[in-house]
Amino acid sequence: MPTEGQEISAHLMEKYGLTREQYEQNTEAMRVRGEQVGFTFGIGKRSRIYNTFDAHRLLYWAGLEGRQPALKHALFKAYFTDGEDPSSHEILVKAAEKSGLNLTRARDIMSSDEYAKEVRERERYYLDRGINAVPSVIINERQLIQGARSADLYTQMLTGIAKAQ
């Protein structure tokens, strides 16, 4: 993804070979799924998809600090609900602070290439295993669910895994 991002509908239609109608149906399905679990997608508030490498560097650090889930939620709200640019260091630092991370440390990370090597290694690890969709959920290092799916599918998968164990 280029640094400045790409218009979201064009990107997704090109990546997945969707028609405009399919893209709009998928967008509505995503909005409904979010609503079902208490998450608001600000449909119409975001028109671009962005390079999130720096967000992943912050998420890596947040994991070391035990704050990764909080930062993920702050970043999801910033992008998916509020339509903010998750490649912006200002937005990233603000999300880090909202999630209980040290503001000065977050700024220091954003002004350096800290954790870039670790994030590139993780990126390569998943790409080498054929994982290139967002979201992708790996359950027990064996089950993979790629793409936006319904809560019912997750329930079925988790129930099946629990029964098998």
Q: Can you describe what's shown?
A:
The chain has helices at 8-16, 20-36, 53-64, 68-81, 89-98, 103-110, 116-128, 151-164, and strands at 6-7, 48-49, 136-139, 143-146. With 165 residues, it is mainly α. The protein folds into two domains: 6-131, Glutaredoxin, CATH 3.40.30.10; 132-165, no CATH class. The strands form two sheets. It has a two-stranded antiparallel sheet with strand order 1-2. Strands 3-4 form a two-stranded antiparallel sheet. Helix 3 (53-64) packs antiparallel against helix 4 (68-81). The longest helix is centred in the N-terminal third of the chain and has 17 residues, at 20-36. It starts with 5 loop residues before the first strand and ends with a helix. The relative contact order is 0.10. The model has no long low-confidence stretch (mean pLDDT 91).
Short account of what is shown:
With 165 residues, the protein is mainly alpha-helical.
Q: Describe the strand arrangement of the main beta sheet, using strand numbers.
A: 1-2
CATH class of the largest domain: Alpha Beta
What order do the SSEs take from the amino end to the carboxyl end, as H and E? EHHEHHHHHEEH
Tally of DSSP β-strands: 4
* Gross morphology: globular
Helix content: 55-70%
Number of domains: 2
Radius of gyration: 17 Å
The N- to C-terminal Cα distance equals 40 Å
User: Judging by the overall fold, what is the CATH architecture of the largest domain?
Assistant: 3-Layer(aba) Sandwich
Please summarize the sheet with the most strands. Answer: 2 strands, antiparallel
Strand content: 5-15%
Q: By CATH's scheme, which homologous superfamily of the largest domain applies?
A: Glutaredoxin
